[in-house]
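Protein record

Derive tokens from sequence
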Amino acid sequence: NRISVRGFNNSVAMLPSAAAEAQSKPRPQKNTDMEEKVKDVPLETSVMMETIKPVLAPLTNLDRDFYTIRINTWKRNEQLILSLDHHSQCPGVALIQVIWCDLSEGNYPAPPEIANHPSGKVFVEYHDVNSLNERFHILNDPPTKGILSLDDDVLRPCAALDAGFFRWAFHPERMVGYDARLHTASDGKNSPWGYGFLSTVEKQRRYSLTLPRAAFLHRDYMDMYMSSMPRLIFDTVEKQFNCEDIAMSFFVSSLTGGKPPLLADLWAVKSIAKLYSPSRISADNNHKAKRDQCVENFATILGLKDENGGKMLQTAKTMHWPNVMLGYGADPDKTLWNVEAHPLESSRYVALAEDVQKLKQKSDNEILYIVKSMSVEISQKAIEQGLILDTKEWKKRWPEEAKRREDEKKKKKT
């Protein structure tokens, strides 16, 4: 009763040598005037953006069967190792590139259990700039054009990753994500835009962006981000240490006529196992205000608020009945898991398509039960280490945080 990846023993012989020297790519020219007003930028920026005609390198058979994971990490080695241990077992993973921006004494180089990971699939990229922009700064060419951008505290079953990957392989010009979010306008279309969390998406059943904490995209978009992203956006991400996810999602939408990203099937989205970390960016008290401003400013700069510019940011429905767990998000493809409609040379795709066809015969509750079982299965090590929120092991390891959460629950009840 569990989706699984079966009968796949191929190997990839294209992995970059760990001794290969990192080759830096040009960074956007520095804008020294950080007081520049957003309202003064759009015309110049939109003209510049119009000159970017994304011609993505075509996919090879290898690119339609394998992908490269790029994991962004910062001082969370315990979570990172769990992620490497799990994701390196996925047969579709050709290589895992770890973006290592901490070159301080005692943290450089990466510890051997990371740098010399027993899977042989891990390559550590050392970055001399500590910025969230660096997650898109490719220093060492990956063996595939498909990139899974991933945070170090997110786990999903291999089959769930394949669900997003194969959707991307059929639409490589789009991002394919797992985390739907929505831009909001509180007072009509002319009001400032804001950032809508998952709760907003679930309430309105619409979305317009996704987060690269778990998203597939063409590696060429990463190069374009580093070379052509408007400087004011690039600098905002660097200064605020936030919003690189919004920036990339909006950037790709601006290059694809304002289309929202695509999403993996809902069963794959729901299969997440989130690793606990005592320190995280979203814990900042100003997190929501920062992201509201990013949404408004980035959309303006990239021309996504211009109804007459031909690339107004679109929203899309999340749910499509009757198969809610399948065909999630924009442009649902009813033939995605039809092997005859998509003659892909991948035994993994064929096996997953067969499993998805079986899912179609089950109720939503039955599918959720299967997905929950998948999530628990990949979480066992994390549970034992007290890194899954609200488990007894977590409460024992983090008693103060457990007490704080319990007190909050009691306050809400009263």
Summary: Confidence is low (pLDDT under 50) at residues 1-25, 30-44. Residues 390 and 405 are 9 Å apart (CA to CA). Residues 287-301 form the longest helix (15 residues).
